[in-house]
Amino acid sequence: MTQSTAQSIEELTQTALGELVLLDNSEALEQWRVRYLGRRGGLTGILRGLSQLDIEQRREVGALGNRAKSTLEDELEKRSQEISQARLAQVADLERIDVTLPGRPVATGRLHPTTQVVREITDAFVAMGFSIVEGPEVEWDHYNFEMLNIPQGHPARDMWNTLWVDYVNEEGQRPMLLRTHTSPMQARVMESAQPPVRVIVPGKCYRYEATDATHEWHFYQVEGLAVDEGITFADLKGTLFEFARRLFGSERKVRFRCDYFPFVEPGVDMSIDCFSCQGTDSSCRICRGSGWIEIMGAGMVHPQVLAGVGYDAEKYTGFAFGLGPERIAMLKYGIDDIRHFYSNDLRFLRQF
Ligand code: DAH
């Protein structure tokens, strides 16, 4: 009996140790502990049988059992430490940094050149007390034309090559379009607010155009509108002059010439003196030798437009203007083709 119990203890110890070296994670270790050292484990079972032995044998085998138990416990502890050290070494290996390697460049995005210029323009007007508003790109004929003093059949409609939306109303008309300019927001803003009005409207516009270096079928505009009692043409000139100097340098001169837009009277176009050649180079690529660069249309808001939104045209006057940020960007950065702005060519975009 003593002999065979002692042998079972020896065998069990060997088997257990043989298994232990193969284990490589803490769950497996725990299962192993339960299997051999737990309350219902192998070794515990053998030792429980001791009660049937006489006192002498019990002491002998008991001592054997206790030694086996502490051997197994010690080895378990050792194996557990080996495993956690191996794990730490593995993590350290993964995290090891070779500081001599060149760094990986982080690719940062940037704002599109058009967005940058739109923000520069709106910032300049915000600094002068204008607020930014935006409006719909799909617009009614009513706002894009009618409210701007351009009724059906008016020859000035030819100034805007329009993309009409395929929607026919009960009267058989197609009253919806992709806005050809940001000017419709003039009427929308005035309909929803009383003077004083001072707004700046950046946004996308669309025209039925064959594209070339200076024409796109979609492009940006920035519209401006100021209406109050006592606004005169001098306010228009002062505001736009200040804007031109902020964007193109404090030395700029400006020139206003008569132009026609149905929603303003008088209407003008504004030019700045050529910041590239100051009018001294007859082959200048920017001003083509004229010394002047046209940058926007403007004028005093037509009384018809004021009356259309219910303003008292006897009491209120105002000025409006509209400009194309892509054109401004082309001038500022010497870009020779408007199509670059929409080609998504990274070689172009990365320059800004
Ligand atoms: N909407 C005009 C266009 O697209 C530009 C313009 C001219 C806007 C004169 C204005 C203005 O507000 O007063 O050609």
Q: Mean pLDDT, as a whole number?
A: 91
Query: Main beta sheet, described?
Result: 7 strands, mixed
The level-1 CATH class of the largest domain? Alpha Beta
Strand order of the largest sheet: 1-5-6-10-9-8-7
What small molecules are bound in this structure?
3,4-dihydroxyphenylalanine
The CATH superfamily of the largest domain appears as: Bira Bifunctional Protein, Domain 2
Distance between the termini: 92 Å
What name is given to the CATH topology of the largest domain?
Answer: BirA Bifunctional Protein, domain 2
Q: Tell me, what's the shape?
A: elongated
What do these coordinates show?
With 352 residues, this protein is an alpha+beta fold. It folds into 2 domains: 2-94; 113-349, 2-Layer Sandwich (BirA Bifunctional Protein, domain 2). The chain is 40% helix and 19% strand. It has 11 helices and 10 strands. The protein has helices at 2-20, 26-37, 42-48, 55-95, 113-126, 141-144, 184-192, 233-248, 303-308, 325-333, 346-349, and strands spanning 131-132, 138-140, 163-164, 176-178, 197-206, 218-229, 254-259, 264-273, 292-301, 316-323. A hairpin with a 4-residue loop joins strand 7 (254-259) and strand 8 (264-273). It binds 3,4-dihydroxyphenylalanine. Residues 181, 183, 223, 261, 264, 267, 297-299, 320-322 line the site of 3,4-dihydroxyphenylalanine (DAH). 3,4-dihydroxyphenylalanine (DAH) is lined by residues 181, 183, 223, 261, 264, 267, 297-299, 320-322.
